User: What shape does this take?
Amino acid sequence: MRRSLTGIKPTNLPHVGNYLGAIRPAIALAERFESFLFIADYHALTTVRDAEEMRRHTYDVAASWLACGLDPERVHLYRQSDVTEVFELTWVLSCLIATGQLERGVSYKDALAKGEAPNAGVFNYPVLMAADILLYDADVVPVGKDQLQHLELARDVAARFNHLFGEDLLRVPEAHISEAPLVPGLDGQKMSKSKGNSIPLFDSAKKLRKVVMKIVTGSESLEEPKVAEGSTVYEMYRLVASEADAAEMKRQLEEGGYGWGHAKQALSEALEAEIGPKRERFEALRSDEAELDRILQAGADRVRPIALRTLDRVRAAVGMRVRG
Ligand code: TRP
Assistant: This one.
């Protein structure tokens, strides 16, 4: 089976945007691929400065994905930091990447443009990400558009390695541009924790409803016809309701006599139907950190042999002793 691989930075408790835009599509993709899904804690370390926060969000992410249906027997779920071999490959790759290419990195450039003084981790971020991918011979990497440049770099460095040291040593991965929609937040912009416009995934049903009611809508009267498409309420409803129900909401909005309040009510019910059963699983999983550790470690133990085999090939190719 072809391999897909994705990393998730443990920088927040997953919200509805993460669920609809990343978690749900990745779990669907796992049906067709041998999936590698890891918590990119060393990538998060470029910004997270609090051990408690790192630990908490690591468990939050693991418990959320598991609660949403990820089967740890089928998907390799692990912490990036549990397979330290990734750093050995990071070094080898960094010796093949021109600093100029990293200087053109979008995140690094953005940080400079904002007048920040980015740390070297931000600069080297794409190299570690390339190692994450190449270490496991991933065929496809599902990414959002914001990660495309990183993936290009991973492809470049793999091809360069093969060119210099021997064909087919490293698998050149393909980007799989997510068809997952951009999930709008309360204000209609892309949902993100930093924008303060997100809807919590596993808060109480009551809180969920309260937050949905805060979604910004037009100010048309109840009677007036409304444009469904492009409205945050309808666009989000479409992602959770059946096609027939979504078509019905569209019709009602366009016809008039159906208010944004009605639409929000329908949305909060549809979200609750989707999330409610997962919330209970989340609570059970999240309250047992020892069990989460066990699952993550079992995942790391399963993938490490693959990492070691890749490193053996790489070490032999560049003239290091093969440990066997
Ligand atoms: N950079 C990715 C992000 O911010 C996370 C990540 C780290 C990743 N390593 C990866 C994604 C490898 C895909 C493959 O979302």
